[in-house]
Design brief:
895 residues
Length: 895
């Protein structure tokens, strides 16, 4: 890997810690300022681990309620009912146990509760269900009635009008009618198991499944345990959507497996990598000639031609928070036809969630960019790194980041248009539990967008706000909850829709399955989502506390049928609520561990390849000598889904750079008034043309935040997210938060800005450096404001940073529910009600006492400071130097 791509934190080998590697610009800075106070090594990454409450072997795993049914009893039921399409020996013990557990689950649902004791279905779910057959009707009193109705709906869907019914389908229909006729005459419990057997046969007749060959899946255990060993979880053991992906939070064991003949009574499960050794031709040499036996596996993907399996492997032996090549995930690929096993990445970084692009490159998630998230305190002993999108060639070479985001991203996949879809944790100037939703970008990382879910209500918390926190289903203004995180997003074959998992923020990636339709008008709540599994409430937002959740890793076969895991096992699930077992843990050819969950089912077959979208950035080996200038074009900045105040016409566009965090502790140091804010650098501004258009050169590889300004350089609207450009990228935007469902009418001529060369950013207030209160504002108040206030015996004579809090506007950040912080909360900026223009201080600086006493230059500095969220510091280190007014530049993203 090239050193130029290691811009942030570099993990050293075992026995070492993380230390900063300065990019070239920072090396020059260090020559004149060698006292960058990086965290003490012993504080940065203390070692240790916490075992789960019930380690395997210490006591038997918890029992799961299940109604028992023997093969002999099943045979008696079939004989008594006269069923022709099923025989008792067709259904192994695991299948019968799955039915018995489903019976108990349906009994709980009929009583209005689920396994956790949550009320089901959750509020609003009946109106949001993907298919009404997945609900339970008020008239139904027994699980057999539910299965009969759902099975009938399935059979109806299999009988295509105008086509002759198959003999098997005719016999199944006749047997179902026999069961219907026995309703009220035979024991209902017996009828349930008869109908379950018929349901299994019917589901396996579905064309989606008859076309589905062998299935690849992963078995993985974590220190957070399972419902059998540890119902509740913690961040420390991997029970968090960031900490779950660390290699040292996994448990040795599990593997990659192939199930053949899964429709048969006794399928065959094989260990895909048993005795396979890493090939001599591998680019990475550390494990050449060795097997991966005894390690852990995660997040497989299958190539479009169905011949190659990509996956992550970790050899961690203990639950200890340290980064080494053995305790982190490395990427591998396995050729199904030749049996060759290649290691693609190595080193003390977690590399995971790999997916193949139509053009042949691989995209994956990695910590290699550097940096930490902002929301864990030092007392938690958690050092939570940033993991974002990276790209490489299929042999592991030419590796570089395609995302410069400063929090985390997960689980990229490619949709039918060839675009990447993935999850991003976005909380710029907002609370840290707010946005973890659907994002999309081009395969080379260009133009990341959030077309759904990133801005829930309330958008603001001014007195005229009428919304509660609509993410939670316990409020008056929300018909239901919202997913805390939308993960494992995949395009549905033959459809414009996506399947995704409503997952927790605090928990592993399991939860409730939903279908997303972006063609529906977005009401910023549930209008674009429909629940496939309405009796699994959304984790955290609809069920209190933290625990294990049922479903995960949905792989869509069509709009009707999905492979997924249900608790510990693999199942096939249909839109009507029918669920049948594919593989249980007991079939694995390895030792039993109650922490294991089977997941990530993928058909081992070729699948259609989406269109190849050409790379349009100058990254990587193939584009080193091309033009690396990045440009931003906006057709009309005035195009917005919220009206701009007419008395404040837009005159300028300002661009800030937002700085990532180089240390792992929340609010150490605290950057501004709100917790978890980020430093920012004003890169400059450009005038906006009369028609609202802009074309400007911008730096690449940096997080950018845009603001539109009035004639007084005050922000009228500001982003509460960030974007970035890549070398050579030309990003085109329609407007600033333009309505997504509307097209834009353009004149025959190009926008004015597009008829000229790109503008250069103009420096604002002679301040092209991180905004620091002690350098930008304190000299002004000490020389101009305080002397005047003291001379006239006016109040407000101290004017330290904290003294300005009541007078400025700033966006709230911090922990969950900070979105409801009065005046400063919400998820969006409201035009004309943010930054300097929404502050008391701006009004004071224009009143009769200050109109002539304060210069335009001083007023502009105050404006710039307030529009940047009124920060105290401009970097996450060297606080005392900053307080003394010294120039301190950030460590990350200053190349």
């Amino acid at each position: 890997m090239k050193k130029s791509f290691v811009w942030g934190i570099v993990f050293l080998l075992e026995g070492a810690i993380l230390q900063a590697q300065l990019p070239p610009t920072l090396h020059r800075i260090a020559e004149r300022d060698t006292a960058i106070d990086m965290p003490d090594e012993s504080r940065l990454f203390p070692r240790g681990g916490v075992e789960i409450t019930v380690p395997p072997g210490s006591q038997p795993p918890k029992e799961v309620p299940a109604k028992a049914i023997s093969e002999e009893h099943l045979a008696t039921i079939f004989s008594r009912l006269g069923l022709q399409s099923v025989r008792a020996e067709m259904f192994r013990e695991g299948v019968r146990r799955h039915w018995g557990e489903h019976f108990c689950q349906l009994e709980m649902y009929l009583a209005g509760k689920n396994e956790r004791g949550d009320a089901v279905p959750p509020r609003g779910a009946t109106e949001q269900v993907y298919d009404p057959q997945a609900l339970i009707l008020p008239t139904e009193k027994h699980p057999a009635e539910i299965v009969l109705r759902r099975l009938t709906a399935l059979l109806d869907s299999l009988e295509n009008p105008g086509k002759e019914k198959t003999a098997a389908l005719k016999t199944l229909r006749a047997d179902v009618e026999k069961c219907r006729n026995f309703m009220g005459k035979e024991p209902a419990d017996d009828l349930f198991f008869a109908l379950a057997a018929l349901r299994r046969q019917a589901m396996f007749l579905h064309p989606d499944l008859t076309r589905c060959p062998d299935i690849l899946f992963c078995a993985r255990a974590s220190y957070a345990g399972s419902r059998l060993t540890n119902w509740f979880n913690s961040d420390r053991t991997g029970g968090h959507f960031t900490t779950q992906v660390y290699g040292f939070n996994t448990v040795r064991g599990g593997g990659l497996f192939r199930i053949s003949g899964w429709q048969l009574p006794q399928p065959e499960v094989t260990d895909l990598l048993a005795d396979r050794k890493v090939s001599e031709t591998s680019r990475e040499k550390r494990l050449v000639g060795k097997t991966l036996t005894g390690g852990a596996f995660m997040a497989p993907d299958v190539s479009y031609d169905g011949k190659t399996v990509y996956f992550s492997h970790c050899a961690s032996r203990e639950h200890c928070w340290k980064w080494t090549p053995e305790t982190t995930w490395n990427l591998f690929k396995y050729h199904l036809e030749t049996g060759e096993l290649h290691q693609l990445t190595d080193g003390p970084y977690n590399d995971f969630d790999v997916c193949e692009l139509p053009g042949g490159r691989l995209v994956f998630i990695s910590e290699r960019r550097g940096g930490f998230i902002r929301c864990f305190g030092e007392s938690a002993d958690l050092r939570v790194t940033t993991s974002v999108l990276h790209s490489m060639k299929p042999d592991g070479s030419d590796l570089y980041p395609i995302s410069y985001f400063e929090t985390s991203e997960w689980q990229p996949s490619v949709d039918h248009q060839g675009m990447l879809v993935y999850t991003r944790w976005d909380y710029t100037d907002r609370e840290n539990c707010l946005g973890s939703q659907f994002w999309t970008c081009f395969p080379d990382g260009r133009n990341p967008r959030a077309p759904h879910g990133n801005y829930p209500q309330p958008w603001h918390t001014f007195p005229d706000n009428r919304f509660d926190d609509t993410r939670f289903g316990f409020t008056k203004t929300a018909p239901s909850g919202l997913p805390m995180a939308e993960m494992q997003i995949r395009a549905i074959p033959g459809s414009h829709r996506y399947v995704l998992l409503a997952a927790p923020h605090h928990g592993e990636t399991y939860g409730s399955i939903c279908v997303l339709d972006l063609r529906e008008k977005n009401d910023f709540h549930m209008s674009q989502l429909r629940r496939v599994t309405p009796y699994q409430p959304f984790p955290e937002s609809e069920c209190r506390g933290r625990s294990q959740y049922r479903y995960g890793a949905p792989w869509p076969l069509s709009e009707d049928t999905f492979l997924c895991n249900s608790w510990e096992d693999l199942v096939v699930l249909d839109r009507f609520g029918n669920e049948e077992l594919i593989c249980e843990r007991e079939l694995l050819p390895i030792g039993y561990d109650p922490r294991l969950r089977l997941s990530d089912p993928i058909p081992l077959q070729a699948r259609p390849k989406p269109p190849v979208i050409p790379q349009q950035t100058t990254q990587g080996e193939d584009f080193q000598n091309e033009n690396r200038t990045a440009t931003l074009g906006i057709v009309d900045v005035r195009l917005s889904d919220q009206p701009f105040p007419p008395e404040r016409p837009i005159r300028y566009l300002r661009i800030f750079q937002v700085i990532p965090k180089p240390n792992p502790w929340m609010n150490q140091p605290n950057i501004g008034f709100a917790p978890e804010n980020t430093p920012r650098i004003p890169l400059g501004y450009v005038p906006v043309e009369e028609d609202g258009s802009v074309l400007v050169e911008v730096p690449h590889g940096k997080q950018l935040l845009f603001q539109v300004l009035d004639e007084n350089f005050q922000a009228v609207q500001t982003m509460r997210a960030v974007t970035f450009l890549h070398p050579g990228e030309r990003l085109l935007c329609t407007g600033c938060h333009e309505p997504q469902e509307e097209s834009v009418e353009l004149s025959r001529s190009l926008p004015i800005a597009f008829q000229k060369p790109p503008q250069k950013l103009q420096v604002e207030c002679d301040f092209p450096e991180p905004i620091n209160f002690y350098r930008l504002i304190q000299p002004v108040v000490q020389t101009s404001c305080i002397p005047c206030h003291v001379e006239k015996n006016l109040p407000f004579q101290k004017m330290e940073h904290e003294d300005f809090r009541p007078y400025v506007f700033y966006f709230a950040g911090g922990m969950q529910r900070a979105i409801m912080t009065p005046h400063f909360g919400g998820s969006r900026s409201i035009p004309g009600r943010c930054g300097a223009g929404g502050s008391r201080l701006s009004q004071i600086l224009k009143d009769e006492n200050h109109q002539n006493a304060v210069s335009d230059e001083v007023r502009h500095k105050f404006t710039l400071w307030m529009d940047a969220n009124a920060p105290r510091l401009g970097a996450f280190h060297s606080e005392e130097k900053q307080k003394q007014g010294e120039l301190v530049l950030p460590i990350l993203d200053m190349h």
